[in-house]
Design brief:
Radius of gyration: 20 Å
Number of strands: 21
Largest sheet: 10 strands, mixed
Oligomer: single chain
Shape: globular
Strand content: 25-35%
Order of helices and strands: EEEEHEHEHHEEEEHEHEEEEEEEEEE
Mean pLDDT: 88
Length: about 375
């Protein structure tokens, strides 16, 4: 992978934390002419649109939202322009929206890169080189859109292609295998010093011990720390994963925060978000047991998030890892919470670094309604 820095005008008042929403929606995918396609595009767009409308309305403290994450492969390609138009016209400034988009051909992906060439020059260069090197225009691309509404109100559109397919995205024929993305943006906010990256599902896990994406990210974050004393503040992983808590994810989290071989100051205080599809998802071609859901937020154990369990969420250490994890359920929900404001906490403090502001459930009329406190009751008393 090649990490490229993208500077964006993103301003947050000093002393204020960032607000995040994870839209855990169902993804319905089937094998199509080009990789995996959304089985019911109109219905899927309606669900995505309902979340965008909710954020655009900004009732209550939703107007403070900074980051909105949708799962992998959630948006039908045909509604991409509609989604971007809504974000451009209705969203507030200083908002980042990450949308996983269904597969399309590499030749079509090239045209989209050319459409937003100013923000995607490096990715376009690699795609043109790959197209020139072989007959790969029909190869499917699993990708996402990172739409940034800057402080000036200007909309910038960044595209990122997945590099690590799962078995359903691979075939014996290399000319129909999933395209391997090579460019990964590292967003650096100005004047607010906040740095974040986005990955797609299996791009988070190790490929091998010598050439993994996550090792490259740690190395670049460490360089950032020693050069500027800044860190990678947020690493967001959008997923459509039937096994979101598989051993391979746990191993990477352990290595990322565990400091086995050497201290990694660039990622020690990174917040890792996993935005997965809900349990109502289905993907044609999956084998074995499938259980989508359980989006989560992971931080280093130095932040001291107390263990607790409620009906809609829980907090734990992921079976003994050096982390604190806020783990959500598997149902179709919107989770709205804030990221930790301070990296280093006084050991005497009682401050809780990560606060869950609200959970939204979709009613029969298609509208999102906030769950009441009695709906999120304690099932196990919190332990301190």
């Amino acid at each position: 992978m090649r990490i490229v820095e993208k500077e964006i005008a993103f301003e947050i008042p000093r002393g204020h934390h960032q607000h995040v929403m994870i839209a855990q929606l169902p993804a319905r995918l089937e094998i199509g002419e080009v990789g995996l396609q959304v089985s019911d595009p109109e219905r899927q767009w309606g669900e995505v649109r309902s979340v965008l409308d909710l954020v655009a309305a900004g009732e209550g403290n939703l107007k403070k939202l900074h980051f909105l994450f949708f799962p992998e492969s959630i948006l039908p390609v045909q509604f991409l322009d509609a989604a971007l138009t809504l974000i451009d016209e209705s969203f507030r400034a200083n908002t980042v929206t990450v949308l996983g988009v269904e597969h399309l051909r590499l030749s079509d992906y090239q045209r989209l890169l050319e459409r937003w060439a100013e923000d995607n020059a490096e990715a376009l260069e690699t795609v043109l080189a790959d197209l020139d090197a072989g007959n790969v225009g029909e190869v499917p691309v699993n990708w996402c859109v990172i739409a940034v509404k800057e402080s000036s109100g200007r909309l910038r559109v960044f595209l990122e292609a997945k590099s690590h397919p799962f078995f359903g995205e691979e075939t014996v024929d290399p000319f129909h295998d999933l395209y391997r993305g090579k460019i990964f943006p590292l967003f650096r906010c100005r004047p607010t010093c906040f740095n974040f990256m986005t990955l797609i599902c299996l791009d988070y896990i190790y490929r091998d011990l010598y050439g993994s994406n996550i090792s490259t990210i740690i190395e670049r974050a460490n360089e950032l720390f020693f050069e500027t004393r800044q860190r990678l503040d947020l690493l967001a992983v959008i997923e459509c994963s039937p096994k979101p808590e598989h051993q391979v994810y746990r191993d990477v989290i352990n290595g990322f925060y565990g400091e086995y071989l050497s201290s990694a100051p660039g990622v020690r205080d990174t917040v890792t978000l996993f935005a997965n599809a809900s349990a109502e998802s289905h993907c044609q071609g999956l084998r074995g047991e499938a259980h989508f859901g359980h989006s989560s937020a992971v931080i280093h154990r130095s932040h001291k998030l107390e263990k607790m369990e409620q009906s809609e969420f829980s907090s734990d250490d992921f079976d003994g890892l050096p982390v604190c994890r806020l783990r959500f359920g598997d149902q179709t929900r919107l989770y709205y919470f804030n990221l930790p404001l301070f990296h280093e906490l006084d050991p005497r403090t009682t401050r809780v670094p990560l606060k869950l502001h609200s959970i939204f459930r979709q009613s029969d009329d298609g509208l999102w309604r906030q769950l009441l406190e009695e709906d999120v009751s304690h099932s196990v008393p919190p332990t301190i």
